[in-house]
Amino acid sequence: MRWKRFAPTGALVVVLLWLRPVVAQDVQLDVKEKVLSNGMKVLVVERHHTPRISCRLVYRVGAVNDPAGLTGIAHLFEHMMFKGTKVIGCKDAAAEAPIIERIDELMGQIADLKRQGTPEALAKIDALRREYESELARERQLIDTDELTDLYQRHGATGLNAGTGTDLTVFMVNVPSNKLELFMWLDSDRMSNAVLREFYVERDVVADERRMRVDANPYGYFREEMLSVYFTAHPYGRPVGGWADDIQRITRQQAADFFATYYAPNNATLVLVGDLEPEATFAMAERYFGRVPRSPKPIADLITQEPTQHGPRRIEVSTMARPVVTINYHVPPRQHPDFYPLSIAADVLNGRSGRLHKRLVLADDIAFSVAANMDGSAHAGTFTLIAMPKGPNTHQRVEDTLVAEIDRLKSEPPTGDEMQRVKNAADAEFIGGLRSNDGLAMQLAVMDAIIDWREVIEAPAKIKAVTADQVAEVAKKYLIRDNSTVGWVTTKPMPAGQASPGGGAQ
User: Fold this and answer.
1) Which domain, by its residues, includes 227?
2) Residues 237, 345: one domain?
3) What is the pLDDT of residues 416-445, one digit of tens each?
4) pLDDT score, position 9
5) Model confidence, pTM
6) Which of 233, 257, 291 is the last residue of a domain?
7) Three-state SS across 11-70?
8) How far is residue 373's CA from residue 46's CA, in Å, rounded to a whole number?
9) Structural domain total, the chain
10) 320-364: per-residue pLDDT in tens?
11) N or C: which end of the chain has fewer CB within 10 A?
C-alpha cells in the first residue's frame, strides 16, 4: 500500500536520482520560506497550471537515528502513522485506551516468558496469546484504520504514501487545490495525536516485509551483509528495515518515546507545490501545524563517524542467484565539495555511453551489465561499482577490469565530450524533474532534510564548474584499494532437477 525505502535498500534507490547534482540553465525557482512559531519550516512554490497541490512532509529522522537494539524503529513508525489518531480511525478513544494498555501488558509478559525460555515459562504463553487475541478483537470493534485513506480518496487526493531512508522519513499526498485545508487538518492531527493502535500486528507486518525483501532475497541479504562490513562503526551499516531480532523486540512504548523525540514540528519541513497563494498558505499552516508544540526533548545529532579504513575488505555470499561483483569506496557526505566531482566521475563510468559498459560489456564481453553510482547521504557517502559477470569469465577478471577502469580515470581524465555528455544528461534530468509538482516537491523536501533546500538551486552552478582534472583528482584521493570493500555473490550448484538461475551464472 505504501511506497518504501530511500536508501540504502534497493527499493528506495529512486530518491538517489533526486539527490544527484544538476545542471540547469534558465530555470528559476521561486521558493518562498516561512518558519512557524514552533520551529517548523514551510516551503511553497506557486504554480497555477493545474488545480492541484503536491504535499510533502519530511521529518529529519531515519534509520541513522534508530537506537542500538531497536533497529527498524523509524521504518516501523512510518507504518504506524497510517493507523489514525484520537480523532481519525477511532469510534471511541476513551474506550480504546485501556485496551491498548492491556495489550501492552500482555505482550510484555509474553516477551519476558520467551526470554526465560524454560518449559514452565513457555507453557504459559498460549493463554496470554489467547487473551491478547481477545483484546485485539475488542479494539477492532472500536477502530477504522482505513479512515485516513478513505477521507483523502473521497476528496480527490492521490498518491498517499510514505518512505523511510537512512536520514529522513517523508509523507506524501497530492490534493485538489480546494482541499489544502483538509490536508493541513489531517496531517497536523497525525503529527500531534497519532495513536499507535494495532502496534504488534503492524510489527509483524514489518517483520514479514523483511523476510520477503531480505531473508528470501539473495541480493537483499548480500547488500545487508555488505553494508555491515563496509561500515564498521557508522549506523549506516544497519539496515533501514532493521535486524530481524530487533524488530520483534520493539514495544509500543519505545515507539511512542521515539515519536515524541523526532516527529515534532521543529524537526520537520512541509513542502507545498502547486495551485496556491503563498501568504494565505503560510497563515493556514500556522493555524493548523503551528498549534503543535515543539518537542521538549533535545534532538541530538550524535552520529558515530566511520573511522579511516586502512586496508581492503572483502565479503563473499554464496547463493542460488546470478553472480555479482561490487566494489564500494568510502567518500564524503552530500554537503562536501568533492561530492560534485565524484558524481561526475560516476556518470563518466555509468550508462550505455559510459566507460564501464564500453569496456566490460562491449569490448571485453565479460559482463551482462555494469553500473556506477555516487550516493551522497547526510553523514557519509558511498561510491559503488557493480557488475554481473558473464560466463565463462570469473569474478576476479571482472573485479580486475573494474579496478583498471578506475585507474584509467586517474591517468586519463574525462574528455571534453565525456564531460559535456554527463552534464547535458544531468541538465535534462533536472529539468524533467522540475516539470511536475511532484518532482519539485520531492527534490525540495529531500534536499532540505539532507542539507538545505537551497542546494536545489545552487547545485547547477557548482556542477557546471567541475573540471576533468578535478574528477581525476578525487578518483586518486578516494577510489583506492585501501579504501575499498569488494563483494562477490557466487552461485551455488543447483540441486538436481532445478533450473539454473541463468544469466551466465557459474
Assistant:
1) 29-90+143-291
2) no
3) 999 999 998 888 887 777 889 999 999 999
4) 32
5) 0.89
6) 291
7) HHCHHHHHHCCCCCCCCCCCEEEEECCCCCEEEEEECCCCCEEEEEEEECCCHHHCCCCC
8) 33
9) 2
10) 889 999 999 999 999 999 999 999 999 999 999 999 999 999 999
11) N
